[in-house]
Design goal:
Strand order of the largest sheet: 6-10-11-18-17-16-13-12
Shape: elongated
Oligomer: single chain
Number of helices: 12
Structural class: alpha+beta
Strand content: 25-35%
Number of strands: 18
Radius of gyration: 26 Å
Distance between the termini: 42 Å
Largest sheet: 8 strands, mixed
Amino acid sequence: MEFMDGVRKQDVIEIQDILDGGFEGKTVKLRGAVHTIRNMGEVAFVILRKARGLVQCVYEEEHCSFPLKELREESAVEITGVAAAEERAPHGFEIRLLEIRVLSKPAEVLPVAVSKYKMNTSLEAKLAMRPISLRNIRERAKFKIQEGIVRGFRDFLTGQGFTEVHTPKIVARGAEGGSNVFKLDYFNKKAELGQSPQFYKQTMVGIYDRVFETAPVFRAEKHNTTRHLNEYISLDFEMGYIDGFEDIMAMETGFLQYTVSFLEKEYKKELDMLEVVLPRVDRIPAVRFDKAKELVAEKYNRKIRNPYDLEPEEEILIGRYFKEEYDSDFVFVTHYPTKKRPFYAMDDPQDPRFTLSFDLLFKGLEVTTGGQRIHDYGEILKKMEKRGMDPADIESYLMIFKYGMPPHGGLGIGLERLTMRLLDEQNVREASLFPRDVTRLEP
């Protein structure tokens, strides 16, 4: 009988092991994929692709017994060789090959040249060939940075006393209402894919005071634009015992400050590769919704057409205005009209036509929606009545208010949109591993 007593130590090493020192001139063993082969005649360079980057391996026939002509790109291999310093190589070292053992090899030639620094192919081709195109080092770098954003979100909020939760995505009713939901047959009951964890994260505030979640949300919107996805990752948090919705904006500002610093420290290689200039987040301006409209209408001679919402062009102009006037890539737009906010949004007691809510724009694109929620049972019933809603439809949600809730609020951040703007990409699909939109269900 065999027992597992922990992680098995292998006799192979990783890039970081060599960087940590002590391997110069020593024989080492690594595993990875053959990214590319550059045959220079007497010598060849076999570039190995690993999770943490590329490794340059030097092939010389007199030192390595494996025939180079039998080696194919994208083969999974185990190599043995001598580690040597080489400042021109990735990470400042190379491996002088002694042995190559092929673990597996591809059945066909790659359909796209993933070994090129920049793939000269269309977005449509990259998405159609996503399992392959993601092997390109620049494509991989995008999602390492995205990983860093999620790590920053989780680490910062944990440090601020938040509890991570995991809520259902199969729900009886969408949090936002309306028709943009994916409907399901759930054992002969009507169900939907969750548009937001809103009801559940509010519920959990009554349990843990401060909660957050990183999970997919689903919107059955028929938009086919550069900024919309039908499934995306939402970074949500909800916090209780707030003094006002400004506490939510302040917490998001803290998250952005922490994450920018974290990315600079832990993901510098990927940032440099993609030539990313991190935004300033030391202070973020906030402007009322109606004032923002007036500012851009006056400065850019644009007529206000929709008094209840921001058009995409207006968002762009607001971003431009605050970049020009305050050198800020971010701006909080506050006090959205009640008409355009969900029923649970708290109205401004000074002017109930507006809500104690906000969006965060990043370079002219909305990446966050948040605000203060109604916490009083009687008040939320009144607002539902005004909107012609039946409390019986969401009885389990209303239970939390019936039995007492603290003043609270929260937000949802679109991870792909935030990544898209951070990387200066022009299409949100560039920031989604496997995008789901109105035309795409595979791969």
